[in-house]
Specification:
With about 230 residues, the chain is an alpha/beta fold. The chain is about 30% helix and about 30% strand. Strands 6-7-8-3-9-10 form a 6-stranded mixed β-sheet, sandwiched between helices. A 4-stranded antiparallel β-sheet has the order 2-1-4-5, covered by helices on one side.
């Protein structure tokens, strides 16, 4: 396996308490993820996977010794800084969160306008390039209800990649998909990672972990165990 020790740190947590609706569920969490790594976050339902991800995107407050992601201090981040943090992170959810009344293209165009892309021709070029990357170059005119679950997830991946993020975070991205489609989605994640993007996936899809082995962080009994791969 490649040695990432000399790579830039993308995520660094040291002795951080993780909360879920004001209830502390994990204590003294410490982990480091470096640029270019592909990392799984695994554990039983309710173990705290989603709560860690919420902390990383500043949906939950970070309390503890050190919490940094893509150059932002999560312990001190101000509300007005959060959109700038999220422009450096691509976020993919299990439930897609696509606008049903808008086409694939319009969904992505909305996302680009929301993060400050003002020029229509630049947005068009970026959307076309990103849809090609996830294999949806011919589906830009479709509406979400006209797409399969796997295609909708590809749109979500494209949306997450629009701003060329340093880090891609996915929360149970194949939870609603069949094994064949799940494999296609994980292949996309690995292709993205091969181009240099750091990838962190919270999942319980052990079939995909077996097919695409990589470093795993296991949440068990309130602790994080690192496979070290």
């Amino acid at each position: 396996m490649e040695d990432f020790a000399d790579r830039e740190t993308v995520i660094a947590l040291k002795n951080i308490d993780v909360y879920q609706k004001k209830l502390m569920i994990l204590h003294d969490v410490s982990l480091t993820i470096r640029q270019g790594e592909f990392v799984y976050l695994i554990g039983k339902t309710g173990a705290g996977k989603s709560s860690i991800l919420k902390l990383l995107i500043a949906d939950e407050k970070a309390n503890g010794e050190h919490a940094e992601i893509v150059g932002f201090d999560l312990r001190k981040i101000k509300t007005k800084q959060i959109p700038y943090l999220r422009r450096k992170i691509g976020i993919i959810f299990q439930d897609y969160q696509l606008l049903s009344e808008k086409t694939v293209f319009a969904n992505l165009d909305n996302a680009l306008k929301a993060i400050g892309w003002k020029k229509k021709d630049e947005r068009y070029e970026r959307i076309v390039k990103t849809l090609d990357l996830v294999g949806l170059g011919t589906k830009h005119f479709k509406y979400p209800h006209q797409l399969s679950g796997g295609e909708q997830q590809r749109v979500c991946i494209a949306r997450a990649l629009l701003n060329d993020p340093e880090l891609l975070i996915a929360d149970e991205p194949t939870g609603n998909l069949d094994p064949f489609t799940s494999e296609e989605i994980f292949q996309i994640f690995h292709d993205i990672n091969q181009k240099g993007t750091t990838v962190l996936i919270a999942t319980h899809d052990f079939m995909m972990i077996d097919k695409f082995p990589s470093r795993s962080l296991l949440i068990e009994d309130g602790n994080i165990l690192d496979s070290g791969l």
